[in-house]
Amino acid sequence: MIRWVLTSIIVLCVGCAEQQIQPLPDVYPPVPSNYPPVPAPSDNPITPAKVALGKELFYERRLSSEGTIACASCHRPEHAFSDAPNQVSRGVGGALGQRNAPTLVNVAYRTSLFWDGRASTLEDQAFSAFMHSTEMDADTLAVAALLRSPQYRAQWIASFGDTTVTMYRAMQAIATFERTIVSANSRYDKFVRGDRSALTQIEREGMDLFFSARTMCGACHNGPDFTNDQFQNIGLFHHYFDRGRFNVTREPRDEGLFKTPTLRNVALTAPYMATGDSQKGLMSTLEDVVEHYDLGGTAFPNKDKRVAPLNLSDREKLALVAFMRALTDSSVLTNPAWTQR
């Protein structure tokens, strides 16, 4: 909380003209019938005006120190809000990040953010990228001047009810927009909703295998978003230079553990894994991922015991890949509510 206060102190308040904030529609943002309402912090309710402002800021490159990097630079709608096909992303000055940029699809439902879970809210996640020296490296004084400019003044008042500009509020707006990126219209979803023709025979075989006790894929990739929001080591390396969850907790049991990612639109977000690679090289295809699990991963003391050799047939490998491809919701790529004009 202190960091928000310190950042806000340097931002000038230019008047406090109060204005009624728009009320919520009956259901906003809309979600699929099998999904719960989108959660939001009590101090940051979702409103249409704030979503509109957040969308503008999500694509605003001038939030970065060089005016070259926006949130959308690493979370691109044409790649399901990931940075595919890049293994890691580039920030200001072309600086390379350390980890693969995950998708933002259905990120509102995540219980922690980043591969190591160090952020508990989307606001914290956005602020971390905003200030990070190899990502946006924001100049808060310059950003404050931008947000006080005529371009943003009316939207700001509509979103927050006055003209007080703080970095915390800017991150609230971005997080609010990101919470609206809810997707569940893949062929798998249509199958679950009753369209028995939505999946092919081999995709059904892959689904059955995915959720079987034999593969245990569904043990970690479960629920509507195919993630348990927990941390596992899946045997990517003999030694982890990036120590994952350990960097947050300093607990030896968390050495080399990373967050289980959602599999929604997974066919669109390669390369895979936290750093985009493994002991055997770049994880650039779903076939690579299935092969990794079929072989039981690489030996490591903290490796999850469920990651063990599977001895899959060629048909079974094809079926698993086919099923994961059926989790693609292509409407995410073109939805005008999320894409830039």
Would you give the CATH topology of the largest domain?
Cytochrome Bc1 Complex, Chain D, domain 2
Helical residue percent? 25-40%
- Got a strand count? 4
Major sheet summary line: 2 strands, antiparallel
- Along the chain, the helix and strand elements come as HHHHHHHHHHEHEEEHH
> Number of helix segments?
13
Shape: globular
CATH architecture assignment name of the largest domain: Orthogonal Bundle
Question: Uncertain regions: pLDDT < 50 for 5+ in a row?
Answer: 1-25
Q: Key features?
A:
Cytochrome Bc1 Complex, Chain D, domain 2, 33% helix, disordered N terminus, two-stranded antiparallel ribbon, mainly alpha, 341 residues, 13 helices, globular, single chain
Offer a concise description of the structure.
The protein is mostly helical. It is 33% helix and 2% strand. The protein has helices spanning 2-9, 48-58, 71-74, 122-131, 140-147, 150-160, 167-179, 187-192, 201-210, 217-220, 246-249, 286-295, 314-325; strands at residues 231-232, 258-259, 277-278, 281-282.
Write the layout of secondary structure elements.
Elements: H1 2-9, H2 48-58, H3 71-74, H4 122-131, H5 140-147, H6 150-160, H7 167-179, H8 187-192, H9 201-210, H10 217-220, E1 231-232, H11 246-249, E2 258-259, E3 277-278, E4 281-282, H12 286-295, H13 314-325
Antiparallel strand pairs: 1-2, 3-4
Helix pairs in contact: 2-6, 2-7, 4-7, 9-13, 12-13
